[in-house]
Design a protein that fits this description.
The complex is a heterodimer of chains A (697) and B (316). Chain A has 697 residues and is an alpha+beta fold. Chain A is 25% helix and 26% strand. The chains are: A alpha+beta (697), B alpha+beta (316). Bound molecules: flavin-adenine dinucleotide (FAD) and iron/sulfur cluster.
């Protein structure tokens, strides 16, 4: 209220997660836990071929199963609108685009009956030869028009070839990353019900309004006839950024059987239908003069997408931002294979791309005989290196490297590889830069002052476990000039003011701007002695359209210490340290979780994670958490995240940059560089498995 | 999931009788940490479960020779923590603790652990052929994903590995398995308990249908106090062995008087390395005298059906 006009400062304090108690007591409900009366269960049936066509479906045994209500497939599925996302055109064709694609579903009174029906369904296919293995000389490679979401696929400046030919030092190496799968804890799940022609979905996703729009499009409904509810979401990492087939299945099945329907994607199914990071093959060429100043940077990327849909990961875009060099080439090529459709996974583009660039920088540092931190500092830039003029709104890469070096004890480091032994263990340290763009997109929000002195702020945001609800409460509290306990922030519902997904690390910046503007508008009303309850709204479209042209990015430095068992090649990580310059930190407690969570995932990418394509069958075979290894506590002793105070008033009213993804960027390179330092062996293909190191003894 | 009956047996004899009564579709249920997973995947489709996890087989008793008799329903965590095990057989305690996770070990039983199935991914995917699951359907692992499968003792029909860590330590200790079956009680040396796949990979062990494991007998091995279990794996915890070794040595005056060596993660059985033991006995106890074991090759994957390396070919 206006009486509390004093400057409160919730921003910057470690406010505990607002819904933490609800979550640990099990009170917080996740999508699959909604239990409408008379609910039925749908179990998807996955294709057993990688390419071809369904000849026929024999549902007789399934339908004879007690409890089974219906079998849905191409023959009886309702016609859906032609949408942008071919993955959502569920059962609209008899074609099979990849092994594991949903081609039918069984609906039953219980999940068990649906599963048994699924097991008994007989599908006869016309199988065609498939093509599922990406290689650098694949005949199907082409250059896409743009890479995710809308960057040029190819950029060139100067003459890279000539510069490389005359460079005093150079590297020309190829790095490979395997496919990775986003393994959120909460499965993709949807409970759908129709009420008087309106569709209501309890759904696990990264943005209720965006999902509402996409799903309304598929069912050819006006958006206001669809409501998507997702107050709590147990992780997504990008895989819940767009609707997945299970949401369409739930809605379709509910329509057909005229009952509410539940669907959850199993862990095994997830390896086919909910997206993953494309494998990449990246040729990196760097050239430098005798002092180590870069003269040429070339980053050529080969990756895959499905035949169903083009997803072109922007793997080389970070290379356009990182270092100055007059001659530059960044380019992407894709092959459309008979594989599941890749999609967003935490820091798409930056994450795999920076593994290659930052490994190559380490190789160049060695080639030049320069400390890797000095090499990076020497090639730092304060303007966008591609256009040579747009200033960064703020950029403190060098500050992060220096602060990290200090904390990590870099000064004592002997650069000679393979010489530090502790019993069986070889010990080494490595460094890599990190970066992530600071985006912001338009959003709407409303703020309401209640008669009892409390406030309600509403915005169609999503908290996928990041702490967004808590951060928005702090932002609202400060904007209203009141304490956080008087503010209730409502998110996770498409009925709320429209806002974008939790993705691209732009949630807090986008939603926060709208929240601040709505709160400001409310305060203006209250200053005008408006009657209570009073409400104000905001829409940031114009503000964002009018923002100045700036290069807006967060930066960071990742440090790793590794120990490599010289008998077995096993790698352990005694220390990870990340230092970030990402504007103002809104909540140090939840921010730290984001950083160390990202770094942990980066360690998984470096050492453990790998989705293995089976060439004969055309699917990812290691499709559970016993086979797809994510890191365990025992793999790392200490993970620390720190950040610099960075003032930047050209971002948003909070002065913040996104922090959800930068933690994963550069970690794998820091670890790979440390492994080289420990063993003298450069592993250019992830993950750094023990068999890739066993020769180092 | 198929509907199934559930029955809790009161004692071993009752369990054996119940299984016989229920016919070939019935299975014993231990902690369920493997069987129930396989039921969810449709790999196992029993029509009845006879729960043997609460049978009065939970004791760890002293044997007259100073060894131990371990009931089949003893939990993996109980066994690992038992004082006599930690003191007399550290390799067994370490092997158990290197397996699975705390929660799983609290459920898993000794009997179930010995009978857990292979982790071969084709075995676990009913949409694919697998000779072990469906005899005669083929073995896609030979040409496909076999990085963690057998490098010794495999056959043209199956290259699976037995995943148990506990069994590796037990086979090094010359443990015996006590079994109650149709013909009464008998004892099978653990070394003869698991089978090589040959052309019958569907048979993991020499057990007959309906046989119930009631106990594991552990003879005294005085020098097992000097023993360890080393498990090499792709991540530091909660993962199966790429390769493991259970070892006990009796060294006197710098010479190996006796030793026990067993390998895990390399074969269809917990592999007792008898020839390596023989080669070590009487040798000076130095690093150089260590026998050359069949080491995982670090070269490219060998596509022939007879050699399988721990490596996966490049690409993805
Ligand atoms: C994610 C994960 C990771 C794991 N990691 C490891 C690891 O690193 N190392 C390792 O060794 N293990 C590991 N395990 C496997 C675990 O050790 C086994 O699942 C467990 O030991 C099986 O015991 P159980 O009592 O639960 O058996 P159940 O699942 O109950 O039964 C397994 C089989 O044994 C039969 N059976 C059970 N008891 C008897 C009996 N008394 N007589 C006759 N038949 C019987 C059942 O019918 C069934 O066929 C892991 C498991 C999981 C799920
Ligand atoms: S290795 Fe054995 S278990 Fe695996 S697919 Fe082949 S037959 Fe089946």
């Amino acid at each position: 209220m206006t009486a509390t006009d004093t400057l409160t400062r919730a921003i910057g304090t470690p406010l505990a997660r607002i819904e933490g108690r609800e979550k640990v007591t099990g009170e917080a409900r996740y999508a699959y836990e909604y239990q409408p009366e008379n609910v039925a269960y749908a179990e998807p049936v996955q294709a057993h071929i990688a390419r071809g066509e369904i000849r026929s479906v024999d549902a007789s045994e399934t339908l004879a199963q007690p409890g089974v209500i219906a079998v849905i497939w191409n023959e009886n599925a309702p016609k859906l609108a032609d949408g942008a996302d071919a993955e959502l055109a569920l059962f609209q064709s008899r074609r099979v685009a990849y092994r594991g694609q949903y081609v039918a579903a069984v609906v039953a009174d219980t999940q068990e009956a649906a599963r048994e029906g699924q097991r008994l369904l007989r599908i006869d296919y016309v199988e065609e030869p498939h093509d599922v293995v990406l290689r650098e000389n694949h005949p199907k490679l082409y250059t896409p028009e743009k890479v995710n979401p809308s960057f040029p696929a190819h950029m060139e400046k100067g003459n890279v070839e000539a510069a490389l030919a005359s460079a005093a030092a150079s590297v020309d190496v190829t790095y490979r990353t395997p496919a990775f799968h986003n393994n959120a804890m909460e499965p993709h799940a949807t409970v759908a019900l129709w009420q008087d022609g309106d569709l209501i979905l309890y759904d696990s996703n990264q943005g209720a309004p965006a999902h509402r729009d996409a799903i309304a499009g598929v069912f050819d409904l006006p958006p206001e006839r669809v409501r998507v509810i997702a107050p709590h979401v147990g992780g997504g990492f990008g895989s819940k950024g767009t609707p997945r087939p299970q949401a369409i299945l739930a809605a379709m099945a509910a329509q057909m059987v005229e009952r509410p329907v539940k669907v959850a994607v199993t862990r095994q199914q997830m390896f086919a239908v909910t997206g993953y990071r494309t494998p990449t093959i990246q040729r990196m060429r760097l050239g430098a003069d005798a002092e180590g100043r870069l003269t040429a940077i070339s980053h050529e990327v080969v990756e895959q997408t499905s035949t169903l849909k083009e997803f072109a990961e922007q793997t080389a875009t970070a290379t356009r931002v990182m270092y100055a060099a007059p001659n530059r080439l960044t380019t992407h090529q894709l092959a459309r294979l008979d594989v599941p459709t890749p999609s967003w996974m935490r820091a798409p583009g930056e994450c795999p791309g920076m593994f290659a660039l930052e490994s190559a920088m380490d190789e160049l540092a060695i080639a030049c005989g320069i400390d890797p931190i000095e090499l990076r500092a020497l090639n730092d830039t304060q303007v966008d290196p591609e256009d040579g003029e747009t200033p960064f709104s703020s950029r403190d890469l060098v500050g992060c490297l220096r602060e990290g070096a200090e904390r990590f004890g870099w000064a004592e480091r002997d650069p000679t590889p393979g010489v530090r032994r502790d019993g069986r263990w070889l010990v080494g340290t490595g460094v890599a830069s990190s970066t992530y763009p600071a985006y912001r997109r338009a959003a709407q929000a409303s703020a309401r002052a209640e008669a009892d002195g409390s406030f309600v702020v509403r915005v169609g945001a999503a908290d996928i476990g990041t702490g967004a609800r808590t951060a928005l409460t702090q932002i609202a509290g400060d904007a209203l000039g009141t304490s956080v306990d008087r503010v209730r922030v409502e998110i996770g519902d498409s009925a709320l003011p429209k806002a974008g997904v939790a993705g691209g690390s732009m949630g807090t910046a986008s939603w926060g701007t709208a929240v601040v503007r709505a709160c400001e508008a409310l305060r203006a009303k209250l200053d005008d002695n408006a009657e209570l309850p009073a409400e104000a709204e905001a829409d940031t479209s114009e503000e964002i359209e009018q923002q100045k042209k700036r290069a807006r990015h967060g930066f960071g430095a990742q440090f790793a210490e590794v120990r490599v068992d010289s008998d077995s090649g096993e790698v352990r990580v005694p220390r990870l340290l990340g230092v970030f310059a990402v504007g103002r930190i809104i909540n140090p407690r939840t921010a730290r979780s984001q950083f160390i969570g990202g770094m942990t995932m980066g360690m998984g990418m470096a050492l453990h994670e790998e989705s293995v394509m089976d060439a004969a069958f055309g699917d990812y075979v290691n499709r559970d958490l016993a086979q797809y290894h994510v890191p365990s506590h025992a793999d790392v002793q200490s993970i620390e995240a720190a950040w610099l105070d960075e003032e930047d008033d050209e971002l948003n009213p909070m002065g913040s940059k996104g922090i959800g993804e930068i933690g994963i960027v550069g970690t794998a390179a820091a670890i790979a560089n440390a492994v080289h330092h420990a063993t003298g062996k450069r592993v250019r293909e992830l993950p750094i498995r023990l068999d890739r190191l066993i020769e180092c003894a | 999931m198929r509907p199934f009956d559930y029955e809790r047996a009161e004692d071993a004899t009752g369990a054996v009788a119940a299984l016989r009564r229920r016919g070939t579709g019935a299975r014993y249920l231990g902690g369920g940490t493997n069987l129930v997973d396989l039921m969810k995947l449709g790999v196992e489709t029993p029509d009845a479960l006879v729960d043997v996890s609460r049978l009065p087989l939970r004791g760890i008793e002293e044997r007259p020779d100073g060894g131990l008799r371990i009931g089949a329903a003893v939990r993996n965590s109980e066994l690992a923590a038992h004082r006599a095990v930690r003191e007399r057989y550290p390799l067994l305690s370490l092997a158990l603790l290197s397996g699975a996770s705390g929660q799983l070990r609290n459920l898993a039983t000794v009997g179930g652990n010995l009978l857990q199935r292979t982790r071969c991914s084709y075995f676990q995917d009913v949409s694919k052929p697998c000779n072990k699951r469906e005899p005669g359907s083929g073995c896609p692992a030979i040409e496909g994903e076999h990085r963690n499968l057998a490098i010794i003792g495999h056959s043209d029909s199956c290259v699976a590995t037995h995943p148990s860590d506990m069994a590796v330590a037990l086979v090094a200790l010359d443990a015996e398995v006590e079994v109650e079956g149709e013909g009464g009680t008998r004892t099978i040396p653990l070394r003869e308990f698991h089978r090589l796949p040959g052309d019958e990979p569907q048979r993991d062990t020499v057990l007959q249908p309906g046989d119930l494991i009631t106990a594991v007998e552990l003879p005294l091995l005085a020098f097992a106090t000097r023993s360890t279990y080393r498990k090499v794996r792709d991540r530091a915890a909660f993962s199966f062995a790429v390769v493991s070794v259970a070892v006990a040595v009796d060294v006197a005056d710098g010479v190996v008087r006796d030793c026990r060596l067993a390998l895990g993660g390399v074969a269809h059985v917990p592999w007792r390395a008898a020839r390596a033991e023989e080669a070590l006995r009487g040798q000076p106890a130095t690093e150089e005298s260590s026998p050359r074991l069949p080491a995982p090759s670090s070269s490219r994957r060998d596509r022939s059906a007879t050699t399988h390396s721990r490596c996966r070919s490049g690409g993805q």
